[in-house]
Amino acid sequence: MQTVAIFGVGLIGGSFGLALKKAGYTGTIVGVSSEATLKAALDRGAIDEAAPLADAARGADLIYLSQPIGRILDTLHHLDTLVNSAALITDAGSTKSAIVSAAQKHIRRATFLGGHPMAGKEKRGVAEADPDLFRGRTYVLTPEDPATLETAPAKEFLEWIRRIGASPVVLSPEEHDRIVAFTSHLPQLASTALAATVAERAGDRLDVAGPGLADTTRLALSSYELWRDILATNSESIELALSTYILKLEYLRDNLRTRDIESEFEIASALATTLRKG
Fold first, then answer.
1. How far is Cα 2 from Cα 6, in angstroms, rounded to an integer?
2. DSSP 8-class letter at 147
3. Cα separation, 225 vs 212, whole angstroms
4. Which strands, in side-by-side order, build the sheet including 167-170?
5. Strand pairing report for 49-50 and 88-91
6. Rounded to whole angstroms, how far apart are CA atoms 84 and 10?
7. What is the pTM of this model?
8. Which residue, 98, 104, 50, is CA-closest to 80?
9. Between vectors from CA 109 to CA 94 and to CA 65, what angle results, nearest 5°?
């Protein structure tokens, strides 16, 4: 893997470049992004050089798509004629079914392996990039065909995932989307809904708020621009997650004056404890 091309050198793409270098990668990292982002990425040392999409694709052994989902889908439509047949194309999109389906349809010459690092921040951009962003985090891989993982390019990529400190987990695209609807997308929407509700009902008296409100609304700092494509490409699973959560809230509301909700506190506390042990 002599040349890595990162398409979209923001938080995830920039962190991937920095993580590779920290892990000992000595090849060339090429960035494809806006002019301002590329300048910032070069200044941060996340990439070694900048190039137009076509030039970067032709020379890359690994193409890492870390753009917004809509841009990833568009790139996959145009990438196949540009890449060399030995290249591995992967992505870091937060939903997988639509991306893997598009790759299966449009990528013929190279190998495609869907991916999703379970890491991030509520803030965006290469200025927030961190070489340790993936350390200790799960890195989900979603091959359409499990045999993909046995190819030489995929094996080398897996080795680099481990070197940057992440733990690979293999799921089908559909199972990934079902799970993250609960573990990632629901927390974002719950935080957004909570912050919006407080803003509308008590936003003028935040001096009467404890630290719990800041803790539970941290994800509300995330931008709609980032989440628009996630919501659109996983809407069915997210609807199920929201419906399940609404039923739980209604149960709590209906049992405010009973001890029936004590078990909910116990279940919730156990999960919160498990998360913090990680």
1. 13
2. G
3. 26
4. 49-50, 28-32, 3-7, 62-65, 88-91, 111-117, 138-142, 167-170
5. unpaired
6. 25
7. 0.93
8. 104
9. 25
By DSSP bridging, strand 62-65 and strand 49-50 are: unpaired
Domain parsing of the chain, residue ranges = 3-171, 175-277
Q: What is the pLDDT of residues 41-82, one digit of tens each?
A: 999 999 999 999 999 999 999 999 999 999 999 999 999 999
What CATH architecture does domain 175-277 belong to? Orthogonal Bundle (1.10)
CB neighbourhood size of 193 (10 A): 14
- Per cent of the chain over pLDDT 70 is 100
Q: Please write the tens of the pLDDT for every residue from 10-24.
A: 999 999 999 999 999
**CATH, range 3-171:** 3.40.50.720
3-state SS string over 168-230? EEECCHHHHHHHHHHHHHHHHHHHHHHHHHHHHHHCCCHHHCCHHHHHHCHHHHCCHHHHHHH
